[in-house]
User: Fold these one by one.
Assistant:
Number 1:
Amino acid sequence: MAGKTLYLGPRLKKLRRELGLTQSNMAADLDISASYIALMERNQRPVTAEMLLKLATTYRIDVADLADKDADETSARLHSALRDPLFSDIAIEPLDIEDIATSYPGMAEALLRLHTAFGEEQLALASRREEGPVRADIAVADPVAEARAFLAARRNCFPSLDDSAAEASRRLTSFDSMKDHMAEVYGLELCLADDGLLLGSVRWYDYHRRRVHISERLDSTGRRFQAALQIAIMGHGPAIDKLIAEGRFADEDGARLARRALQSYWAAALLMPYRAFRKAAAELRYDVEALAARFSVSFEQAAHRLTTLQRPGEEGVPFFFLRVDRAGNVSKRLDGAGFPLARHGGGCPLWNIHEVFATPGNVDAQLIDLPDGQRYVSIARTVRAGGGGFGARSVLRSVALACSAEHLDALVYAQALKGAEPTPIGVACRLCHRPRCIARSAPPIGRELTPSRFRDSGVPFDFSQD
């Protein structure tokens, strides 16, 4: 150990402040000069092994307490952020990134926050361009778009929530254990209730009677999720609010939707702990049905969770997720991969997200090809919400989980898609310039329609390809 040196400036300063000491106080305790303390805190002098031992014995601390437990994660986040094409012309050595994360954690966090804010603005700009010009004197808040941008800018991954949920999952392994936890920690009775009491709701916190009612019409996966969601709301509000404070919302509605998304995120992370779920996903080759069965969750919950596996240094296959109804309305977008199709797509009828309505409950795998040459694997299936009794209303939707085709070999669906011809689709008809598309509902912007006086091409809109 003799002769080994470390630069621990920020951590030494943090320790000193936690102990309530000035540099002069610490210098006197360690029998060194105050100027030497200042130099060590500025990383201009190393903290030697002998100095570490003196710190440990003087202040009765474990040397491990001086280790930065977050340095590895900060380093991984920095590596991920600096892969952005924005920095492609800057040569940054991996060791430099490690040094910044270890020696200048404050600067590292500042850079990461700026990069996240930049990502949010890029997404907002893309959405505004997609929607067309708006009057500069009218500010229209779109809380749904704001919440989606908040999640997408962070790649729908929140390690702090994953960590706290994973810790809780060790003891909250069943609905009954969650029921006991609610009683012991919050003094709340968790119970099932009929529709007559809930009036169509799936969960109701009866504040005055100190009860949380969950609809008996939910299946076991729905009941567990609602119980986990109530625990997230009751016990993890401050952690979630801290994340929300980092967002940029025009009004409370956007923040409210983002907060609801993070509460659901924590609940899903409790049922499907990050590391266990990521390991199982690799073992099962991302078979969504098999994952749902192993973790006792629904197909949609498992598909949703797969979009969150982007923790720096522990990434899974990057997926995006869409949910649509029969009319083509997109009710959920989750993007853990940063793909344009996830932000603006969903309307092409040739995509299997629409075709699976013809075979409810069956999983379909499809290779899709965008006009710009990007190719994806799409796994789609219908899911049903509501119901649970005769006459109870329900809605059938379709979900699609998609990733870049470069990950095909990692997926169980590869065996069905090897050698298959990709289906050409577009993001939207107005933006798709594929000629002779029989499914087209509108001509592309900027293309002149060809006259049909002498010939009928057989397609809805025949346009010049020049």
Number 2:
Amino acid sequence: MAAHAGLTVERITRAAAELADRVGIEKVTVSALARQFGVKDASFYSHVKNLQEIRIRVALLASDELNQALAAAIAGRSGGEALTAFADAYRDYALAHPGRYAATQLPLDPAEFTDTAVFARSVELTYAVMRHYRLAEPDLTDAARLLRSTFHGFIGIESAGGFNHPRAAADSWRRITTGLHHLLANWPPAP
């Protein structure tokens, strides 16, 4: 039956990513995917081990897509311009692909997958933006965590409709990215 449905790991991963964007990563199930392909659940298990593998594959796909968007956004830029382009690309991806973005935030055990290059690329891109600010460890890690938590928190609240105020969320986003640039440029020295 799998041959008739044209099942491959890649098609399953793409279908799971699209389903995640429609219903949320937590609602992606083998049964829901099987229905999309018009096959029985068992047909999937000759291609993937379990639901966790599907979620890992969606997380890797989404991380790679996000990395590509970030790399394109920051190419040829530095300082506040690079930070703003990075932030905008991050937010745009998360809002356009909510299920995939949520998959990138799943706690994954590195022992469950072998492709860590995509996650290393994410760190490289973040640090590329941070180079302008000349931060050394542990400040570099602390500042990168500030960016990630600020972006993730804002996007989470915005996605949930939590900014119920007449001021446009995009206007606040612009001010926040400007504020982050000034903070990074004037990062307090470690004690």
Number 3:
Amino acid sequence: MERAVSPVIGVVLLVACTVLLSATVGAMVLAYEPAEPASTVVVSGAVDADGNELTLILDRGGPLDTRELSVVVEVDGEPLETQPTVPAYSQSGFTGFPSGPFNAGTDPEWNRGESASLTVAKTTNGPQPVPGSSVEVRIYENDLPVATVEATAE
């Protein structure tokens, strides 16, 4: 009779272990909270061909620390001879002072809804945006791409 009891006890223990393991895995799955997705940064822009002004607006994501940003500007697929430095005061290849968080004299935190602008110098930087030009601005944070803005100069 002892032989008949051993398989039954073994099956009961195996079922108990399976139930316990299933309950543990189930509890872990239910308690798991996925990490929040990385913030997607969306920037829109406009180009005033008459004034050579590039205006960028942080539409979604951020805030961004402009001290960690770099900006690359291309007009009709050709990069500007002198690329902007942000944040900055007056700089070679650009006229006047950058506005918003691109200006070194302001808060370097670029928040949603805030605009920043640069004016490309007409005589010392090129190519110049003319009405209808395709202007692409790529924004990098610590050398990693954050956003790309494509605009048509008006």
